[in-house]
Amino acid sequence: MLTKNQQKLYDSFYESTHQNEYLDLQTELLVGLSAAMAMNCAPCTRYYLEQAKKSNIEKGAISEVLAKVMAVSAGQKRLQLVEVINDYEIDFKS
Fold first, then answer.
1. Structural domain boundaries of the chain?
2. Residues 6+ apart with CB under 8 A from 29
């Protein structure tokens, strides 16, 4: 629900993220895929998977991205639980 100007600015910004100075295409696509997965964006995940396939990125690279997203997600959930336990002083020792 952006104004026309806001949409135009967003589109310009998004397109600029595909014009990398430092990342090669494979790295860009794998970073995009990991971000899409982490943000739970199914259309974005589909886009990056399709682009990865077109770019002949190996299934193993996709698997490693999946594993990294899973590891970071699991770690975040563990830390979230510890934070709630500490913030609310929930004592499991007694």
1. 23-87
2. 48, 51, 52, 55, 57
23-87 belongs to CATH 1.10.3630.10:
no
Give the residue among 27, 69, 74, 73 at the shortest CA–CA distance from 48: 27
Share of the chain above pLDDT 90, in %: 98
Q: Can you give the C-alpha Rg of the chain in angstroms?
A: 18
pTM beyond 0.90: the answer is: no
Tokens representing residue 1 in the block: 């629900």
Which of the four pLDDT bands, split at 50, 70 and 90, describes residue 94? confident
Residue type, 39: M
Q: Whose structure tokens read 């739970």?
A: 40
Asked whether 34 and 68 are in contact (CB, 8 A), the reply is yes
